[in-house]
Amino acid sequence: MRNPDGKEVRYPVLLTPTEKQMARDVYTAFRQAVCGFDLLRSDGCSYVCDVNGWSFVKNSYKYYDDAACVLRKMFLDARASHLSSAIPPTLPWKLNEPVQPSEGLTRQGSGIIGTFGQSEELRCVIAVIRHGDRTPKQKVKLKVTEEKLLSLMLKYNGGRPRSETKLKSAIQLQDLLDATRMLVPRTRPGRESDSETEDFEHAEKLRQVKAVLEEGGHFSGIYRKVQLKPLKWVKVAKSNGEGEEERPVEALMVLKYGGVLTHAGRKQAEELGRYFRNNMYPGEGTGLLRLHSTYRHDLKIYSSDEGRVQMSAAAFAKGLLDLEGQLTPILVSLVSKDSSMLDGLDNASIEMEEAKHRLNEIITSGAKTVQNDESSESPWMVDGAGLPSNASELLTKLVQLTKKVTEQVRILAKDEDEELTDVIPPYDQARALGKTNIDVDRIAAGLPCGSEGFLLMYARWKKLERDLYNERKLRFDITQIPDVYDSCKYDLLHNAHLKLEGLDKLFKVAQLLADGVIPNEYGINPRQKLKIGSKIARRLLGKLLIDLRNTREEAISVADLKSNQDQHSPSMKTEKEDMEYQSKFYIKNDDVRRNSTTSNISMEQDDDDDKETKYRLDPKYANVKTPERHVRTRLYFTSESHIHSLVNVLRYCNLDESLQGEDSLFFHTALDRLYRTKELDYMSYIVLRMFENTEVALEDPKRFRIEITFSRGADLSPLEKIDSEAASLHQEHTLPIMGPERLQEVGSYLTLEKMEKMIRPFAMPAEDFPPPSTPAGFSGYFAKSAAVLERLVNLWPFHKHANSNGK
């Protein structure tokens, strides 16, 4: 496959343990520490088909840096071995390299732990992270009776008249686009009478569907999906004249789009990955890469089903492991999809509806919300904590300001010069994922940032205006407040150049309301927050406990082994003991629990896959100072709902009846800080780190300590103030990420035993998890390489010449 410049498409992949051994054999045979060679993968096997020797990789600075380090070590080993171990493994000019203007997006918090004690080793890093900056999520709903659309529904649901259809693939969406183009009127009819209003709105919605489907010039990626659900049926004679059959005559079409990771979102995720590499592990930045390259770092990354979450995970992995190249290959190689653990609110839908109903009563009652007593010791314990006292007045103001902004966008959409589309090429969302900078041409042309034209921008604001307040029923819909706030924040950051009057005022009003509404949607008081949180995050909490338990068992196993080895002198060690020692460094892969890989195609596992082992460094052959140091990293990328749910369970778990009398996991000041942290914004995260005190007895509860930190994610202050830093961030359309903050007092000691006791009542039991499956990057994966390649091609826009018809 070749790119638009005619060059072969290249991307990084994971080598299997067998392939790594083959690489070592090639290196040994040719006696070259830097040696290029080609591997051919076929039917689950790998073959060396060419050895290139000293072949350099074009345009890869990392390759030259790595080669230089290897050469330097060879010279030092040969002529100055006393210096070889003293000189750091990185190049001298890399140590104090200045931070680039586009980097440094992560701000320091209060949660960075100091030096790693001599007796305390980091054993596990677990992070649950929200996705990066995205475009507003949007939805178009319309009832359709057109024969073309009803026939399309039957075509893709197997001809079943009462079954709904989901259209996601390029072929399906192209069929829908072709049908929609034939149904959209060529001119916009006026509304001469009230009876024509519905026809007018239907035509406008079809026009919006067409505009969304035509974005980018071709279908790629995972950002548009359509549901067709039959509503009414009639009996018709069968075509063969024998009896009758049902046929749908009306269906509900729901088009979901938007919510795409922006250039800023990718930059945020990649920078946060770099921040983790430099601050969460011993060794000041190079430490993690050193662990990773010497079989002492056990890394797994999980993501929900949403495209923005998957791409955030891939961008983070790129920064964490200092990878190069496109995000899609990193996604396919490193990120596992687990929608059952990281997606969905179905388990708590009834409780959330109750919370929203109560919230609506408090806000729309018109009375001052006197429940909030900010002077009390625990203001978060009352119903509706955090809601502004004048919420009812603010809601009225929100409607007025929304109308004002919508009208300005309507004028822009009406005056939009359609000839601009000939000057500015179609926006391609898939290609945009490779960028970390803004589209200068679109901004200069006075167009909205990203893929959105003025027509879609107006449709977004018009829908918010219509749904926020029903003028016929004189009724507010408070569930629209987060969406209004979302749109405000997006346009204030990405479309400031359009100079929409009153947008900043609307943002402030929406922010006041959203800061009260959003946290209370997950429970109107702490007990309800705990109940809802435990239902949404039950599976995730169970997996976190499994991660911590597996780390503890592995650490104890290694400690026992080391203790036994220390009791025997080398001369007394038997061959059998030596074999047992080596076997301990092949750890069963018992904690990989996935419902699917990144591929949507089910991959059958061979019988041998369950027996696959995971390799660890054997200290006897290690050329490192701390061969016993081994860190397990588990990263979970998800959406706002799971972050809120996890935080709520962690801070309120002691309120459960089974844990009466237990102290909170967090100290009081941290609880107050979390209460005042209204929004868990893009890239907000919670980190659990487990340390082992090697000077404490194995059976002592203080052997393993848990440290919890959190970050509220993107810092909104540049949107709220005017200074040089704010202007610079505005220019790049990117907000900085706040560093982690402590949730425990300095010197406090949260044991793993206490952590398990507090969380277990809300977590899925380990026995309820499905059996282990094989990681995507190893055997079984390459045996089905055709399916993986197909997935890769669908995700990544290779050389596609899109024409104006979007075909």
TrEMBL record:
<dbReference type="GO" id="GO:0032958">
    <property type="term" value="P:inositol phosphate biosynthetic process"/>
</dbReference>
<keyword id="KW-0067">ATP-binding</keyword>
<protein>
    <recommendedName>
        <fullName>Inositol hexakisphosphate and diphosphoinositol-pentakisphosphate kinase</fullName>
        <ecNumber>2.7.4.24</ecNumber>
    </recommendedName>
</protein>
<dbReference type="Pfam" id="PF00328">
    <property type="entry name" value="His_Phos_2"/>
</dbReference>
<keyword id="KW-0418">Kinase</keyword>
<dbReference type="GO" id="GO:0000828">
    <property type="term" value="F:inositol hexakisphosphate kinase activity"/>
</dbReference>
<dbReference type="InterPro" id="IPR037446">
    <property type="entry name" value="His_Pase_VIP1"/>
</dbReference>
<keyword id="KW-0808">Transferase</keyword>
<dbReference type="InterPro" id="IPR033379">
    <property type="entry name" value="Acid_Pase_AS"/>
</dbReference>
<dbReference type="GO" id="GO:0033857">
    <property type="term" value="F:5-diphosphoinositol pentakisphosphate 1-kinase activity"/>
</dbReference>
<dbReference type="GO" id="GO:0005524">
    <property type="term" value="F:ATP binding"/>
</dbReference>
<keyword id="KW-0547">Nucleotide-binding</keyword>
<comment type="function">
    <text>Bifunctional inositol kinase that acts in concert with the IP6K kinases to synthesize the diphosphate group-containing inositol pyrophosphates diphosphoinositol pentakisphosphate, PP-InsP5, and bis-diphosphoinositol tetrakisphosphate, (PP)2-InsP4. PP-InsP5 and (PP)2-InsP4, also respectively called InsP7 and InsP8, may regulate a variety of cellular processes, including apoptosis, vesicle trafficking, cytoskeletal dynamics, and exocytosis. Phosphorylates inositol hexakisphosphate (InsP6).</text>
</comment>
<dbReference type="GO" id="GO:0005829">
    <property type="term" value="C:cytosol"/>
</dbReference>
<dbReference type="InterPro" id="IPR000560">
    <property type="entry name" value="His_Pase_clade-2"/>
</dbReference>
<dbReference type="InterPro" id="IPR029033">
    <property type="entry name" value="His_PPase_superfam"/>
</dbReference>
<keyword id="KW-0963">Cytoplasm</keyword>
<comment type="similarity">
    <text>Belongs to the histidine acid phosphatase family. VIP1 subfamily.</text>
</comment>
<dbReference type="GO" id="GO:0006020">
    <property type="term" value="P:inositol metabolic process"/>
</dbReference>
